[in-house]
Amino acid sequence: MHVRLSYWAIASVLIAGCGDDSTTTDTGGASSETGMSTPLTSGSDTSGGADGTSSGGGEGTSGSDGGATTNDTDSADSGDTTEGKGEESSSGGAQAMVDVTMSGLMINQDCMPIVATDPVGAGFMLELDNVGEVPATVSVVSATFIDARSSEAGTIELTPPVIGPIDPGDDTGLFMSKIADSLMPATGCSVVLCNETYDLEVVLDIEGTEVTVSDSATVACVF
């Protein structure tokens, strides 16, 4: 009887110990659950991380905007470069620009009893203002008398035949005169008539571009 009671007592103690182990295991399990709860909380953090990712996405979007800004800047720079090249090209290929004014025309001829084949004299002032960016040379192409009916009466040659080069910004004035014995046709006082008014049209070549200037005067004669 005593032995049996001791057996049962030992058994009870063992069972109680096992029960404690089970409780410990449960507690460990609870700890495990708590440990799992922590990853879940971490998962919440991950959700926060999702927000972070979204925020990161925002940064990505901002980065895209930044990229767009960079592209716009590059395009603007290219435009500036293009424009800068355009300005250089225009400057490199700049044309001569000369304002020309003709004034003070005088026409005279000597129609004495013995008349020369070319009795005509003529002269005028020519003003040339280089408003361009490059030097310019001006050459005389032709000089023609035009009568009141707008018909060509005759031609003459002028001196100096070449003017310049005229530097940019320079304003040059000079007297142009008829070269002796250059009247065509050379038929004396019948080419330009005394006391009649004529235009003298002068064609000038300015670096490959022709311009026409003119002035009018009444022919003064000596008999």
Characterization of this structure:
With 223 residues, the protein is an alpha+beta fold. The chain is built from 1 helix and 10 strands. The protein has one helix at residues 2-92, and strands spanning 98-110, 120-130, 136-146, 152-156, 158-159, 162-166, 171-178, 197-206, 209-218, 220-222. The strands form 2 sheets. A 5-stranded mixed beta sheet has the order 5-7-2-1-10, with no helix packed on it. Strands 3, 4, 6, 8 and 9 form a 5-stranded antiparallel beta sheet that branches. The radius of gyration is 54 Å and the shape is elongated. The protein starts with a helix and ends with a strand. The model is unreliable at 1-5, 7-11 and 13-92 (pLDDT under 50).
Q: What is the share of helical residues?
A: 40-55%
CA-CA gap between termini: 185 Å
Shape: elongated
Q: How many alpha or pi helices?
A: 1
Largest sheet: 5 strands, mixed
Element string (H = helix, E = strand): HEEEEEEEEEE
How would you classify the quaternary structure? single chain
Percent of sequence in beta strands = 25-35%
State Rg: 54 Å
Across the major sheet, the strand order is 5-7-2-1-10
The assigned structural class equals alpha+beta
Unreliable sequence segments: 1-5, 7-11, 13-92
Q: What is the number of strand segments?
A: 10
Average the pLDDT over all residues and give the rounded result: 72
